[in-house]
Amino acid sequence: MEITNVMEYEKIAKEKLPKMVYDYYASGAEDQWTLQENRNAFSRILFRPRILIDVSKIDVSTTVLGFNISMPIMIAPTAMQKMAHPDGELATARATSAAGTIMTLSSWATCSVEEVASTGPGIRFFQLYVYKDRNVVRQLVKRAEEAGFKAIALTVDTPRLGRRESDIKNRFALPRGLTLKNFEGLDLGKIVKTDDSGLASYVAGQVDQSLSWKDIKWLQSITSLPILVKGVITAEDARVAVEYGAAGIIVSNHGARQLDYVPATIMALEEVVKAVEGRIPVFLDGGVRRGTDVFKALALGASGVFVGRPSLFSLAADGEAGVRKMLQMLRDEFELTMALSGCCSLREISRNHIKTDWDTPHYLPAKL
Which EC number(s) does UniProt give (predicted)? Predict the structure, then answer.
């Protein structure tokens, strides 16, 4: 079957993967309202394209934290990728590097920071969960730094794991032969079968529920890497993140896997962008499946987007080649959207290029 859009990878992944693995990747928390909303909200944003503009040359490149990348589309952290494909995070790293963009490696990867670094050059960020044992965190951050990772994406929305009912039903555990590679030597690498979700039990035992804003200062004291705060969806928290010296914000609801009935990230984005007032970059993570989605996020003030599930499903479908093709399709669609909207570079994408169902008609000329 010829793949013509990113969504088609999910169907292939569902057919190929064991039910427990597919459900772990695909599901959201509780009623999964936010899971649906992360996608549906994009359809409530419409375009206001400009015409008769020379779009013969289009530049989709950008910079993130000072690093030049080929496009404003990056790979979000997703856990345990060897459940999707034997090459796991190594395939994702190679594909992302070939595309000239950024990969974020999950703390809970099935390949270590060193293994991912060994795939060759590339701009990579490291997603961090803060464990109760701070020595574990210190070691992990130091290893990421030494392996050439360029930033820490600190996940701040997971003091406890959201209630993911399919994981409870499936008694989710890491398949035989796989470990959380970054924790293997610390005896924290296994997620075993329990009477619940094995991951929920693991998080309850290991992740620090007392994590607070002061810990960003602590993190800054143990690393010189810039810290992106991942999991901000309100203006109030966005302002505090700036005060505490965050290098950037990732607007994320954890793929709708934590608190159900929070807004779609694309709905929360503009509130966060307005609150930071241009002081730090804001990125969107959640629900992106089309180049049109990327354009909409940038029009609402995002500096770039991260994609999660598309990388997992394309990896499951066709390994490294699948992830490469997925990124290329998003890039091509985004470039086409720019051309059809009358934009030749990212800086030309503006709020006036879209209208939303929460807009007042601010974009109308004074005289009709």
Answer: 1.1.3.15
